[in-house]
Amino acid sequence: MKIKIVITGHSKGIGREIAKNLIKLGYEVVGISRSTSNIKNLSKEYKCDISDYSNVKKIFKKIKKFNILINNSSITKFSKNYIKNFDKIVKVNLSGTFYCSYESFKYLEKNSSIINLSSINAYQAFPNNPGYVASKGGVKSLTQSLALDFANKNIRVNSISPGYFNIGMGKLSYKNSAKRKKRLNRMIINRWGEAKDLFGLINYLISNESSYVTGQDFVVDGGWLAKGL
Questions:
Q1: Could you give the angle at which helices 130-149 and 82-90 cross, rounded to 10 degrees?
Q2: Which residues contact 109 (CB under 8 A, 6 or more apart)?
Q3: Domain coordinates of the chain in residue numbers?
């Protein structure tokens, strides 16, 4: 019987590459996103704004039983209005992650795993986007809370905090030569991250090799947070 994986935000960026790799590895993959992806051999996909709990509830009721949840869906900008921007980012990134996790608890098989995508913004403040920084810090803390609360069903909950990647939200900065160089100078490993740099860790957290790991955050940032002078 195939392992069934549900991933949010699968239609674009890093989420799309993760979904494609999981399919390549032979998993049954179900996608949830605001737009369709047309990914080959995707088992099923559902259009959903995860900031709407009633919608999330309906979608998971349709999916029913599965083994792994990857909460990847995230936004970094919504509106030029400072308050609206903050509220919507937190609603999608933090509340949406909680909604999907909460609903998945009903349908996840025992000895399952939830993987949340946080960010190095959970550790360091970056300018002019308090909603994103706050939401990703919240996802990291939420991971610990859910790891404790979901333990009675043997569901492990961990998170991954990527640094600067040349895909998804980091794509615009990567294309800007000045920004790309400035960020590169902060990394110990002298290159930007690629989607494939997350695959090994995700595979580990899916597998039984990580059966004694829960409530943890794994930073994948080329040494960004570790670098001093």
A1: 20
A2: 65, 66, 67
A3: 4-217
If we measure between CA atoms, which residue out of 181, 174, 219 comes closest to residue 197? 219
pLDDT single digits (tens) 13-22: 999 999 999 9
Q: How many alpha carbons lie under 13 Å from residue 202 in its C-beta half-sphere? A: 27
d(CA 69, CA 40): 20
Residue 91 contacts residue 126 (beta carbons within 8 Å): no
Residue type, 201: L
Amino acid at 135: S
Token pair, residue 222, equals 């080329």
Locate 152 and state its tokens: 């009675």
CA dihedral 129, 130, 133, 135 (to 10 degrees): -120
Q: What is the pTM of this model?
A: 0.96
Q: List the Cα angle 226/75/10 in 5-degree steps.
A: 95
Query: What pLDDT digit, counting tens, does each position of 128-183 carry?
Result: 999 999 999 999 999 999 999 999 999 999 999 999 999 988 888 888 899 899 99
CATH of the domain spanning 4-217: 3.40.50.720
